[in-house]
Design a protein that fits this description.
23 strands, 18-stranded antiparallel β-barrel, 3 helices, three-stranded mixed sheet, mainly beta, 422 residues, single chain, Porin
Length: 422
């Protein structure tokens, strides 16, 4: 049997042969070579290494267009030695897209799907994210994890209907204790921030079956200058937020999501609003504190230019737990519980200088009720048309170790990134 690496290489070779066979009349090749080096700022972080990144990445991209079809491949070759020397190959995207007239698109293969309105806040975007990449300085494109899926887009006079079917559940890539530490409530001391190898995090994966596949849908259209959308999803929580006391293991509970969004220009900027109902199917009565209760999540945001090449935005998210009284009644004695309502405020500032070759950006998340914080800071300099230099930092803080960002408070890091694009 072929190893994963050789399987990916074979898949790439097949995709690259598509234009040679004459299926693609226009073919383009691009990519980049990148070095990323990062180090943690907390010497007490219980991870495998003080480094958070030490990698060289080569990405190859190919696009090929035929009369009614498109073929796309994006593959990464990575040499990583943040702890031990290792190499990896990931087929990030490899799909074929077919057009049937002007009313139907069909895309099949490995792909990245994005929808919703939030800036780094996701309500109805239920597709896999890679938070290990996000917290260590990789490019923003790596926040979205790929998945094998079939995507159908139907264009009508009323609006556009998108349907995404993922045969195999694809979870978020969350910190496991190797590169980034996390809070674990079941330590002998009664909970604390832990890391690998002693607390290498692993979760029970849903069984590979048709019943456990994922299905997401979106209907969108314009009303005047407002872009509105309705969403639906059936699958699982993307993070392993369920805990089985019998097996002492984390798992991914079943989940349905129903939501809507709107985005439109106003007051010289852009405003967006989004909401979703999270139906926790494994805790219908809301009386199992080891599984998230159903909740309602809402978001509103606004962005505009506030100065010469200076853009800013602000967002507010609110999450309201359903059946909170039952949750409290069944909470084990001594276990830290969640509040009925969660509040999150974010803001982003982006300044462009030197004819837009130099940019500074800052993005801050702050929860006033959990009293925790996450800040992303980046200086980016376009040295030439091909070479870009970046210096950034990820900073976490929290009053308690078990909150959303407090769990990562020992993972403060800085990083340097050099990219050569071609």
């Amino acid at each position: 049997m072929l190893t994963k690496k050789y399987s990916y290489l074979m898949a790439l070779m097949i995709i690259l042969l598509i234009p040679v066979t004459g299926l693609g009349s226009e073919t383009y090749f691009t990519g980049f070579l990148q070095g990323l080096y990062g180090g943690g700022l907390d010497k007490d972080n219980p991870t495998l290494s003080d480094l958070t990144a030490s990698e060289t990445r080569l990405q190859l991209r190919m696009e090929s267009f035929a009369d009614n079809a498109e073929f796309f491949a994006r593959i990464d070759f990575v040499y990583d030695d943040f702890y031990e020397h290792s190499t990896d190959i990931e087929l990030r995207e490899g799909f074929a897209k077919f057009r049937f007239g002007s009313f139907l698109d069909f895309k099949i293969g490995r792909q990245i799907v994005t929808w919703g309105t939030g800036d780094l806040i996701f309500i109805n975007d239920v597709f896999a994210k890679d938070y290990q990449s996000f917290f260590t300085g990789r490019d923003d494109q790596y926040l979205k994890a790929p998945q094998n899926a079939l995507r159908l887009a139907l264009y009508t006079g009323t609006g556009t209907l998108d349907i995404v079917y993922t045969p195999r559940f694809t979870p978020n890539r969350t910190p496991t204790g190797e590169r980034l530490s996390y809070y674990y409530p079941m330590t002998p001391e009664g909970g604390g921030i832990v890391g690998a190898p002693e607390y290498l995090f692993e979760a029970d994966f849903p069984e590979a079956s048709f019943e456990n596949s994922e299905l997401a849908g979106r209907f969108s259209r314009y009303l005047g200058n407002a872009d509105i959308a309705l969403y639906g999803y059936t699958g699982f929580y993307k993070n392993p937020v369920g805990y089985d006391m019998a097996t002492m293991s984390s798992y991914y509970p079943k989940l349905n999501v129903y939501g809507a969004s709107v985005r439109m220009p106003i007051f010289g900027g852009i405003v967006w609003a989004e909401g979703g109902y999270f139906d926790s199917r494994d805790d219908i009565d809301g009386d199992n504190p080891m599984i998230p209760n159903s909740k309602i999540s809402t978001l509103i945001g606004f962005e505009r230019q506030i100065g010469s090449n200076l853009t800013a935005n602000i967002q507010y998210q609110n999450e309201k737990m359903i059946d909170f009284d039952k949750y409290v009644e069944n909470l084990p004695v001594g276990m830290a519980g969640k509040e009925e309502t969660y509040h999150l405020v974010t803001t982003r500032f982006t300044q462009l200088l030197m004819m837009e070759t130099l940019s500074f950006s800052a993005f801050a998340f702050y929860s006033p009720n959990e009293e925790d914080f996450y800040g992303r800071f980046l200086a980016n300099y376009k040295y030439s048309d091909a070479i870009t230099l970046a210096l950034g930092a990820n900073i976490f803080d929290g009053q308690d170790e078990y909150t959303s960002f407090g769990t990562f408070q020992k993972n403060d890091n800085i990083y340097l990134k050099v990219t050569y694009g071609y």
